[in-house]
Protein backbone atom coordinates (compact mmCIF):
# COMPACT_ATOMS: atom_id res chain seq x y z
CA UNK A 1 0.00 0.00 0.00
CA UNK A 2 1.45 3.36 -0.99
CA UNK A 3 0.88 6.30 1.32
CA UNK A 4 1.03 9.95 0.26
CA UNK A 5 1.10 13.07 2.39
CA UNK A 6 1.41 16.67 1.23
CA UNK A 7 3.06 19.15 3.55
CA UNK A 8 3.32 22.91 3.19
CA UNK A 9 6.73 24.48 3.50
CA UNK A 10 7.14 27.29 6.02
CA UNK A 11 9.38 29.34 3.70
CA UNK A 12 8.37 28.56 0.12
CA UNK A 13 10.68 31.24 -1.29
CA UNK A 14 13.77 29.72 0.38
CA UNK A 15 15.10 27.10 -2.03
CA UNK A 16 18.57 26.76 -0.48
CA UNK A 17 17.53 23.92 1.83
CA UNK A 18 16.47 21.88 -1.22
CA UNK A 19 19.91 21.87 -2.85
CA UNK A 20 20.91 18.62 -1.10
CA UNK A 21 18.05 16.67 -2.69
CA UNK A 22 18.00 18.63 -5.95
CA UNK A 23 21.52 19.54 -7.10
CA UNK A 24 21.70 22.24 -9.80
CA UNK A 25 18.14 23.26 -8.93
CA UNK A 26 18.34 26.76 -10.41
CA UNK A 27 19.52 25.47 -13.78
CA UNK A 28 16.80 22.78 -13.78
CA UNK A 29 14.12 25.36 -13.00
CA UNK A 30 15.29 27.85 -15.58
CA UNK A 31 14.11 31.43 -15.70
CA UNK A 32 10.92 32.17 -13.77
CA UNK A 33 7.99 33.60 -15.69
CA UNK A 34 4.23 33.96 -15.32
CA UNK A 35 2.25 30.76 -14.74
CA UNK A 36 5.09 28.23 -14.75
CA UNK A 37 4.88 24.98 -12.76
CA UNK A 38 7.47 22.20 -12.38
CA UNK A 39 7.89 19.10 -10.22
CA UNK A 40 10.99 17.10 -9.38
CA UNK A 41 11.26 13.76 -7.63
CA UNK A 42 13.97 12.83 -5.17
CA UNK A 43 14.17 9.03 -4.92
CA UNK A 44 15.18 7.68 -1.53
CA UNK A 45 14.47 4.03 -2.36
CA UNK A 46 12.32 2.07 -4.76
CA UNK A 47 9.35 2.59 -2.43
CA UNK A 48 10.03 6.09 -1.04
CA UNK A 49 10.37 9.41 -2.72
CA UNK A 50 9.77 13.10 -2.23
CA UNK A 51 8.09 15.18 -4.90
CA UNK A 52 8.90 18.88 -4.82
CA UNK A 53 6.36 21.17 -6.51
CA UNK A 54 7.49 24.54 -7.84
CA UNK A 55 5.48 27.50 -9.08
CA UNK A 56 6.29 31.08 -9.96
CA UNK A 57 5.26 34.05 -7.86
CA UNK A 58 5.22 37.74 -8.75
CA UNK A 59 7.68 39.80 -6.70
CA UNK A 60 8.52 43.51 -6.81
CA UNK A 61 11.57 42.67 -8.95
CA UNK A 62 9.82 40.23 -11.32
CA UNK A 63 8.95 36.54 -11.20
CA UNK A 64 10.57 34.10 -8.78
CA UNK A 65 10.40 30.35 -8.20
CA UNK A 66 8.86 29.11 -4.95
CA UNK A 67 8.27 25.63 -3.52
CA UNK A 68 5.08 25.86 -1.45
CA UNK A 69 4.55 22.13 -0.93
CA UNK A 70 6.23 18.77 -0.85
CA UNK A 71 4.55 15.41 -1.36
CA UNK A 72 5.93 12.53 0.71
CA UNK A 73 5.42 9.05 -0.70
CA UNK A 74 6.19 5.91 1.30
CA UNK A 75 5.33 2.23 1.37
CA UNK A 76 3.70 2.24 4.83
CA UNK A 77 3.09 4.27 8.00
CA UNK A 78 6.62 3.73 9.30
CA UNK A 79 8.14 5.04 6.06
CA UNK A 80 5.79 8.02 6.02
CA UNK A 81 6.62 8.89 9.63
CA UNK A 82 10.34 8.78 8.79
CA UNK A 83 9.79 11.27 5.97
CA UNK A 84 7.68 13.59 8.15
CA UNK A 85 10.44 13.62 10.78
CA UNK A 86 12.93 14.56 8.06
CA UNK A 87 10.91 17.71 7.39
CA UNK A 88 9.91 18.36 11.00
CA UNK A 89 6.28 17.95 10.00
CA UNK A 90 3.58 16.48 12.23
CA UNK A 91 2.10 13.08 11.50
CA UNK A 92 -0.99 13.17 9.32
CA UNK A 93 -3.94 13.73 11.66
CA UNK A 94 -5.71 10.59 10.45
CA UNK A 95 -2.65 8.54 11.54
CA UNK A 96 -2.04 10.23 14.89
CA UNK A 97 -3.33 7.16 16.71
CA UNK A 98 -0.67 4.92 15.12
CA UNK A 99 2.30 4.37 17.44
CA UNK A 100 5.89 4.99 16.50
CA UNK A 101 7.87 1.85 15.63
CA UNK A 102 9.96 0.35 18.41
CA UNK A 103 13.71 0.78 18.28
CA UNK A 104 15.58 -2.48 17.51
In a nutshell, what does this entry contain?
The chain is an alpha+beta fold and 104 residues long. 15% of the residues lie in helices and 36% in strands.
Question: How would you characterize the overall build of this protein?
Answer:
- The structure is a single chain.
- This protein is α+β, with helices and mostly antiparallel strands and 104 residues long.
- The chain has one domain.
- Helices cover 15% and strands 36% of the residues.
- It is built from 2 helices and 4 strands.
- The chain has helices spanning 25-29, 77-87, and strands spanning 3-8, 37-43, 49-59, 62-74.
- Strands 1-4-3-2 form a 4-stranded antiparallel β-sheet.
- A hairpin with a 5-residue loop joins β2 and β3.
- The mean pLDDT is 90.
Task: Please specify the SSE layout and strand pairing.
Elements: E1 3-8, H1 25-29, E2 37-43, E3 49-59, E4 62-74, H2 77-87
